[in-house]
Amino acid sequence: MTEAYPDNMNSTHRGGHQLSPNTPKSSTIDERANELYCRRQRQLCSRIDRMFAVLMVLQWLAAMAAACWLTPLTWNGAASSIHPHVWLAVLGGGAMTAATLLLVLFRSGTALARHVIAISQVAYSALFIHLSGGRIEAHFHVFGSLAFLAAYRDWRILISATVFVAVDHFLRGVFVPQSVYGVITVEPWRWLEHAAWVLFEDAFLILSIQRSAQDTKRVAAQTAKLEQQNNELELAFGKERAILQGALDAIIQIDKFGRVTAWNPQAEQVFGWSAAEVVGQNLADYIIPAEFREAHRRGLARLVETGRGSSLNRRLDLEAIDRQGRRFPVEIACTATHQGGDVGFCAFVRDISARKQHESDMQQAIEAANAANKAKSEFLANMSHEIRTPLNAILGFAELLNADGVSPAESRQFIDTIQSSGRHLLTLINDILDLSKIESGHLEVEFKPCSPNQIIEETMSILRVRAREKGLTLESRWASPVPVTIVTDPVRFRQALMNLVNNAIRFTERGSVTLVVSLAGTQDRPQLVVEVVDTGIGIAANDLERVFMPFVQVDSSTTRRVGGTGLGLAISRQIARRLGGDISVTSVVGRGSCFRLAIDTGSLEDVAMRETPHQIPLLPRHENSRPSVPQIRLDHTRILIVEDGEVNRLLLTFVLNKVGALTDWVENGKDALDRIAQKPFDVVLMDMQMPVMDGYTATRTLRERGCKIPIIALTAHAMRGDELKCLDAGCDSYLSKPIEATLLVQTIAELTTARNKNPIPTGLAISVPLAPMAAQS
Amino acid sequence: MLVAIALAVWFGTLGVMFWNITQYEFRTDATHDHATPLVWPEESPIAVVPNRATLLVFLHSKCPCSAATVTELEQLFDDLRMCAMDPLPLVQIVAVVPQHADRSWLESAVIRRALHLPSAQLVIDEEGREARRFGAEISGTVVYFDHRHHLQYCGGVTGARGHVGNNTGRSSLFQIIARRRSALPDMRPALGCQLIQTDCEN
């Protein structure tokens, strides 16, 4: 028996029909409609199966009740036994009911179940006819049964039932007509008459079944179409949802009243409101700053009314607020949407706080870079000027010296000018080096106990001459007791102080420069404060901080007039900070400035305090003495000059010969090793950067060979650390270029004096390396 | 295949049951041990009326099948009235009951209903003495004596056990009573319970 309705429930359409986009829609809808129809029929059949299961049980009970009521017993005189009708009701009804129940349980919805149920149902008709004693009314059970069976909406089972009824009537009519027709003799066509009445009912039932089936198919077709539309809508909604959920921007939809209809996760993140809190609420109340809400409402009303607005379909930078009331910049793009005739709006909102901040930072960076470039350009221009100015003097006066007709007095004046210009150049280079150290973070300080009084007095003593030359008064006073000693880097402290006082003198035309010294800070962190107060030109308020910036000069013209590199204050402030303090400035333009230098003093426990400054006997100054030729003699001192620069060699040779030294020279470290192996020397002047073999290697080699001759490193590398590097290589002393003749002679004298006190036998230092040197050569 | 076998078994079971019940409904259990007297026996205590036919209806008080006999007799008397039959036969309802039977035997539904037949009178026949006298063994046996008290009919008036409906028994009886025709050869046997207990089962 074939299945009338194929089971498609296990196909891919379970739980929702998925339409392939490549499948032609019409055929897909037809297939789906057929599938829905079959499924509905199966569901219907299963439901009717269950109904008949119940009906069968009820009929069985009714049959047994009727049999027990009408014909419970059959009698043999006074004796009785169970009437066969009761057995028929129990067993016959049981067989029909059991078959139905089994099929409903195990084959529900199948054609087999339906047909067996149909036959059982009309068999019940026969049973009731028997039980009722052939009452004609019992035949109505047949018609009722067929009507019930029509509920299956399957005309085939009506045929099964009708065939059963016809055969039953035919057989009974032939053999026992009384049992079905109530008469003993009947016409041969009597069964046909009965069957015809059944068929008459069948005809109506089949018609109604067909009509019902058509309706069902129509509904299935409509359902299939709706499903397809739903799928398409779901697809569209799915895409929309995916866009909404995954968008990097906040996406907000509002209706024409300004109420939120969609609010994606990014919107939750940006504004801090969850979708549950905001959807259905007025957007303006949540994310628009109060002062813009009315304008927003007016604009929305105009948009809804006219469909036009300046905010549609363009990007706008606005301000929004979040849940915490934080205002932040947003970029918004708004577009109109239409749903069911109602207009709505969709806004894509992006928090551009970071971008704005970045833009601001970029702008500041650009401005800073431009300013730095400008400052550096100015600085370079100034440096160029600063360098060219002394160079011009040096070259010019050197040329004049070389000319004929120069008197000795003029020559001395020219030489003084050349020397002064050279020193200025040296200061300039030193400042640049200091700045380089500061910028690279390598400014090193060495803390040790020192006397602030001595440093201040020395500084004043050095600069007093210059102040006097300008007609200025340079003095100091103590505003409070000052410790006798403090722990700081005296060299750097002096450098910073020198810069400040030098600046004050430089920018002051008349009046005075006063140093006011005091002890400030806290008990735990006392600080020594030196205020350098001048009566100079002063600094405008908005330039007060700029004067501390590297490469920045308040007024280049002034700087050119008064001199200086423009780096002093920047260097001094960094030094002060490294010493635990700072430099600040107050100033009134035209009345003067006050630079306040503060540095940590270290612990002042058990440190004596002094109420007034103490005059320090000053060392003799070289600057004002004629530095031409050193007074120390180096008679018969054998000096090897290792220098690749010819000019330097000549200078050194000249200076040293002037003080009685015997000099020899080589051009590189390798030649030096050879020369030392050949001749005895008392001192070696070693340039550290040379071709073939540099001074470090040569010195290290000499020391490895046991050579004890004092070696003085000469290098143009003036950075801190270079000295240490030279000493590590084995040098006994270090002098940076340009070499001061006096210092050079003095250093040689000190080394040779020390050596003479502890003489080294000549040749001992080189006895060891001779063999390997010879082997190498 | 299994389903086909099960279906065949199922159909067979139904067929056998319906066949057996049909057989039962058309089976008569009369042994004909006692012949029906051709003339009213004078020794019978059952009253007769001179020149008036008598219809004896032997009923087992609790036989469910006999309700159909009463139904057919009601139809018969309706038919006789339609023919303006007058006088109608005297109807004697002979209720065959066991000895010392209780009231339930005498007031059974079938007896009460039978007594509604025209001029019906109840005769209590303990142990079936009258039934034996008139050769009635099966409940529903109708014996008709004409006005001369000659036997005209003895048999059933239903086509099958407990079945109502036109049947040759009732038709014959109608012909005999209404047309005063002599007894017809095709008297139908009565189909019902045994009035008098026999050894064999129904």
- From the alpha carbons, calculate the radius of gyration of chain A and give it in angstroms: 59 Å
Q: What percentage of the residues of chain B does DSSP assign to strands (E)?
A: 15-25%
How many individual domains of chain B? 1
Estimate what percentage of residues of chain A fall within beta strands: 15-25%
Helix-strand topology string of chain B: HEHEHHEHEEH
Strand order of the largest sheet of chain B: 3-2-1-4-5
Shape of chain A: rod-shaped
Question: Strand count, sense and closure of the main sheet of chain B?
Answer: 5 strands, mixed
* Proportion of helical residues of chain A: 40-55%
Uncertain residue segments of chain B: none
Question: How would you portray this structure in words?
Answer:
The complex is a heterodimer of chains A (about 775) and B (about 200). The radius of gyration of chain A is 59 Å and the shape is rod-shaped. In chain A, strand 20 (about 710-715), helix 21 and strand 21 form a beta-alpha-beta unit. In chain A, about 55% of the residues lie in helices and about 15% in strands. In chain A, helix 1 (about 25-70) packs antiparallel against helix 2 (about 85-105), helix 1 (about 25-70) crosses helix 7 and helix 15 runs antiparallel to helix 17 (about 570-580). In chain A, the strands form six sheets. A five-stranded antiparallel β-sheet of chain A has the order 4-3-7-6-5. Chain A is an alpha/beta fold. Chain A has five domains: about 25-225, no CATH class; about 245-350, PAS domain (Beta-Lactamase, 2-Layer Sandwich), CATH 3.30.450.20; about 370-420, Helix Hairpins; about 445-610, Heat Shock Protein 90 (2-Layer Sandwich); about 640-775, Response regulator (Rossmann fold, 3-Layer(aba) Sandwich), CATH 3.40.50.2300. Chain B is α/β, with parallel strands linked by helices. Chain B has a single domain (about 1-180), classed as Glutaredoxin (3-Layer(aba) Sandwich), CATH 3.40.30. Helices cover about 35% and strands about 15% of the residues of chain B. A five-stranded mixed β-sheet of chain B has the order 3-2-1-4-5. In chain B, helix 2 (about 65-80) runs parallel beside helix 6. The longest helix of chain B has 24 residues, at about 1-25. Chain B starts with a helix and ends in a 24-residue tail after the last helix. The model of chain B has no long low-confidence stretch (mean pLDDT about 85). At the A-B interface, strand 1, strand 2, helix 2, helix 3 and helix 6 of A face helix 1 of B.
